[in-house]
Design a protein that fits this description.
Strand content: 25-35%
Distance between the termini: 13 Å
Number of domains: 2
CATH superfamily of the largest domain: Medium-chain alcohol dehydrogenases, catalytic domain
Largest sheet: 7 strands, mixed
Helix content: 25-40%
Number of helices: 10
Structural class: alpha/beta
Order of helices and strands: EEEHEEEEEHEHEHEHEHEHEHHEHE
CATH architecture of the largest domain: Alpha-Beta Complex
Number of strands: 16
Radius of gyration: 20 Å
CATH topology of the largest domain: Quinone Oxidoreductase, Chain A, domain 1
Length: 324
């Protein structure tokens, strides 16, 4: 038996329970993994709350690192004792151990620790598909990235600077602004005190930006559109403040023939080859030292409820992990 986190119904963090589960031997194409660190991500709160519905009862979590304990038939390239990490599920990483599809994990090099691996995969792959694939940011471009002091934001900020971009970020406090600047953010807008779109225009000399990366959702929808150049792209990849609803498409033409996409990491890592290529890009940029993974919070796996409360209360910065 292993300890794992489970929910019986969607709801607030109070629905999170610690349970004992049996972990079977791996079947064909599967491996059994003993987790050493588990990643905490905002999407976990969407699954828990029911915003993204799950079949109940359900585990939580999409990201972790650990050691292969057993290998099922038909698995090649992985052996017992290999260190691995993953960031695209399936759901259930909040557990001491589990059985996983072998084609969902990647090996970790010796230069990257288990904790770093657990903290970087989902957020790192999110940053990768946003700034390298949806809108391949070029040297000399200026971009707006919301929640720049968050887990995805701090990774993306460093990566964008390595690509030669100028980064405008938004943050909710002076402390978070200082953290973002320490990671290379050129300009930080305090969204509780400043008008985002007006500040973007000031910073860019009236030109505004060609792309906005927005994981906040409802609260930044209009400011994001107002920060874009004509024919600019809004990449709305998250709902930290709630989902954007009841959109009048006419607003896109009125504000400059704008483009909007609402992507998910799962659609950009839908095949094993796509997943591996995305993950390898993250591994390479972290191993190079261009992107550093700051783990600013650690919780015991049994304290997952508290971790969710703190995440939703905006008390966390950078990366957070759970320790089984």
């Amino acid at each position: 038996m292993v300890k794992a986190i489970q929910i019986q119904r969607p709801g607030s963090p109070e629905v999170i329970e610690v349970v004992d589960l049996d972990v079977p031997a791996p079947g064909k194409g599967e491996i059994r993994v003993r987790h050493t660190a588990v990643g905490l991500n905002f999407i976990d709160t969407y699954h828990r709350s029911g915003l993204y519905p799950l079949q109940m009862p359900s585990g939580l979590g999409l990201e972790a690192a650990g050691v292969v304990e057993a290998v099922g038939s038909g698995v090649t390239g992985l052996s017992e004792g290999d260190r691995i990490a993953y960031g695209t599920g399936p759901i259930g990483s909040y557990a001491e151990a589990r059985v996983m599809p072998a084609d969902k994990v990647v090996k970790l090099p010796g230069s990257i620790s288990d904790e770093t691996g657990a903290a970087m995969m989902l957020k790192g792959m999110t940053a990768q598909y946003l700034i390298r694939r949806i809108y391949p940011v070029q040297a000399g471009e200026t971009v707006l990235f919301h929640a720049i002091a968050g887990g995805v934001g701090l990774i993306a900020c460093q990566w964008l600077k390595a690509l030669g971009a100028t980064v405008i970020g938004t943050a909710g406090s002076e402390d978070k602004a200082d953290l973002a600047k320490a990671h290379g953010c050129d300009h930080v807008i305090l969204y509780r005190k400043e008008d985002i779109a007006e500040r973007v225009k000031e910073i860019t000399g009236g030109k505004k930006v060609p792309v906005v990366f927005d994981g906040v959702g409802k609260d930044t929808w209009v400011p994001s559109l107002d920060s874009l150049q004509p024919r600019g792209l809004l990449v709305s990849y998250g709902n930290a403040s709630g989902p954007v609803r009841d959109v009048d498409l006419g607003i896109l033409s009125a504000k400059g023939s704008l483009f909007v996409t609402r992507p998910t990491l799962m659609h950009y890592t839908a095949t094993p080859d796509e997943m591996r290529a995305t993950a390898q890009d993250v591994i390479d940029v972290v191993a190079s030292g261009k992107v550093k993974i700051d783990i600013n919070q650690r919780y015991a796996l049994s304290d997952a409820r508290q971790a969710h409360e703190d995440l939703e209360a905006r008390k966390t910065t950078g990366q957070t992990i759970l320790i089984p």
